[in-house]
Specification:
single chain; 306 residues; mainly alpha; 13 helices; globular
Length: 306
């Protein structure tokens, strides 16, 4: 016991000796791997279960994996003066999740991931409409480029309409709204508190859709659903903590790793090979989102010096 405790203390000490940037990058890379695994498992299990039921169990098991943290804190993690905002975030999040899981069940993994990169583009637009922020030409150009990248992936009028791709785009727009809410919540609540309340509300809001399409479970499916919940919780906590460790612009470039992992898993598990348009469009979309983030950072620094 003493040796294991000493080893644990050594790891904790080593972790805290690292700079915030290094910790943030490591956590972001971990989040991309966990997200890719979860997405691949959702795609795999969707051959037996409806995505709505998968979403319910992802939320249930995800909350169960958070239970030790919640109990250890003596339920202090649920302390928040913004329960209403957590509920709204949960409602938006469940709509985005259901659409995204549906997209994963019918569209290649890499293509869905590429389209999910449009979330920062939608967030930039929402910051204008909701928060009243003013954008100059450079950011408008980046937003335009992001939508061009989306059109490269979708190629409307050239390839057949892909309902899954449309759902992925709709999910990204809703997730952008959820990110705005997370940004507001993070001013007062910890990342674990935000994830804990998300787990509660996602479980509640996903019960109805799951019951509507309910099917009996096999033991193998139940094990896979458990791993979906575990990987989803790891991804959410790692992402939230990564953004707290350092400036988002320092870790955002590593988010592109998601398409690498999903492409590899898609090829290995489902014999899916992303076409050149998916890679090109994903690069344009992601670059646009990164540019917007960099411009926001520069604008914030400029405001601080004024």
């Amino acid at each position: 016991m003493d040796s294991r405790f000493a080893f644990k203390q050594h790891l904790v000490s080593s972790w805290h000796r690292q700079s915030g940037v290094i910790r943030g990058i490591f956590l972001m890379c971990l989040a991309t791997i966990a997200f890719a695994i979860m997405h691949a498992l959702v795609r795999y299990v969707s051959s037996d279960l409806h995505p709505f039921q998968i979403a319910f169990f992802r939320n249930v098991f995800g909350l169960l994996f958070l239970a030790p943290l919640i109990i250890q804190s003596r339920f202090e993690l649920f302390r928040s003066r913004r329960i209403g905002l957590h509920a709204i975030r949960g409602l938006v999040n469940i709509a985005a999740m259901l659409m995204f899981f549906m997209a994963l069940s019918m569209t290649p993994l890499a293509k869905v991931t590429a389209l999910s990169f449009t979330a920062p583009i939608f967030m930039a637009i929402l910051s204008i409409l909701v928060l009243g922020e003013r954008f100059r030409f450079h950011r408008w150009f980046a937003i335009f480029a992001g939508f061009v990248g989306m059109l490269i992936v979708l190629r409307p009028g050239i390839v057949a309409n892909d309902i899954g791709a449309m759902l992925a785009v709709g999910s990204a727009a809703l997730w952008a709204f959820a990110m705005l809410l997370i940004k507001l919540l993070s001013r007062t609540d910890s990342s674990v508190t935000i994830v804990a309340w998300m787990g509660i509300f996602l479980c509640v809001f996903s019960i109805g859709p799951a019951l509507w399409v309910w099917q009996p479970l096999t033991s193998e499916t139940l094990i896979l659903l458990t791993f979906i919940g575990l990987s989803g919780s790891i991804a959410q906590i790692s992402l939230s903590q990564s953004l707290k460790e350092t400036d988002p612009t320092a870790v955002m470039p590593f988010d592109y790793l998601k398409i690498i992992w999903t492409a590899l898993l898609g090829y290995w598990l489902f014999s899916e090979t992303p076409d050149v348009y998916t890679w090109l469009g994903a690069t344009v979309i992601f670059s646009s989102g990164l540019y917007i983030a960099l411009r926001e950072k520069r604008s914030a620094k400029h405001m601080e010096t004024v």
